[in-house]
Amino acid sequence: MMNESTNPSIYNVPNALTSIRFGLAIAVMVLIPMGQYLPGLIVFAIAASTDWMDGYWARKYGQVTKLGRIFDPFVDKIIICGTFIALVEVDGSSVASWMATIVVGRELLVTSLRGMIEGSGGDFSASQLGKWKMVLQCGAVIAILVMLLNPENNILEWTAVGFLWSAIALTVYSGVDYSRAAARVMHVTSASTDSQGE
After folding, report:
1. How far is it, in rounded angstroms, from Cα 124 to Cα 32?
2. In the chain, what are the domains?
């Protein structure tokens, strides 16, 4: 977990990078329904691959802010959820509305659990499973956009579908895993509170 510096300004490089990524996320959601798959692919790749930059800069130069800690993961979710929702509109993308609902629902669930647990003093940091989920989701989006650029290529189609179903499966599994972890943390926190009250 990043330590916050003494009242760092919100007008800093990490927050500027996050704002740029937010703009790129909006651009992806506009480009894909317009059929601009190549620009959408490029913009998505830039937005997703620069995820580490703002956090790294903030930690290295002591520019961690409360705004950044909220805004950065919010933008991550907008990039993924917004892109999946945009792909639902595209014929031949293989992304069904229920798949996008699972992606969005999982993010809302984990965000709610994290807020509840950390608000009560518990630790609910991101797990490796959650990071691999993000990798597979990004891989699925990239594979689907490449497939849409080459609609007659069966190998790309099967690759995209494989990535998509793997991403959805891991999304569901990671949501269940986070729920179990949250239940354990809440149980420990509750037990500790009860023992202190005795």
Report:
1. 34
2. 13-193 (1.20.120.1760)
